[in-house]
Amino acid sequence: MQNYLFKFIFILLIILLRQHSLDAKRYELKKFVCADQLGPRVEFTLPNFSNNNKKTLFKIFDNERRELSYEQFSELKKVKSIIDDSYFFYVAEIALSQNGDDKIYFEFFPPSTMMIKVNQSQFKNLACWTI
């Protein structure tokens, strides 16, 4: 009896761990917030890349006054890593003005890191999490 119980618990544990590892790499349709040391900078939902709709709504928070935000639809591109072809990251460029002079470019490395660049400035690292 004890042997069967051990086998049952062992198989159940393997199934649960396998299921957890399968769900861990699924980021599509999850909502993310990315922030620096002062607060949130970007909020967005990763689109489902199985269909052709790769546009998503980005909520960009003002750098100086975080209570102000700007919402813009933009295309998000899924890029395969050069080093490890099983890993993807995401790239977007968002125009903040009508003439396209003010732009935000970012690279999102799920689940926790974003590199963001405003116009010609240096990249800044942001910490990200799902909400």
Structure description:
- Strands 1-2-3-4-5-6-7-8 form an eight-stranded antiparallel beta barrel.
- The protein has one helix at 2-24; strands at 31-36, 39-45, 55-61, 69-80, 88-95, 103-109, 113-118, 124-130.
- The termini are far apart.
- It has one domain (31-130).
- Strand 4 (69-80) and strand 5 (88-95) form a beta hairpin.
- It is built from one helix and eight strands, in the order αββββββββ.
- By secondary structure, the chain is an alpha+beta fold.
Element-by-element helix/strand order: HEEEEEEEE
The number of domains is 1
Class of secondary structure makeup: alpha+beta
Mean pLDDT: 83
User: Alpha-carbon distance between the termini?
Assistant: 44 Å
Q: What percentage of the residues does DSSP assign to strands (E)? A: over 45%
Total helices: the number is 1
* Main sheet: strand order: 1-2-3-4-5-6-7-8
Helical content stands at 10-25%
Q: Which shape, going by the Cα principal axes?
A: elongated
Main sheet?
Answer: 8 strands, antiparallel, barrel
Backbone CA Rg: 19 Å
Ranges where pLDDT stays below 50 over 5 or more residues in a row are none
Q: Using DSSP, what is the number of strands? A: 8
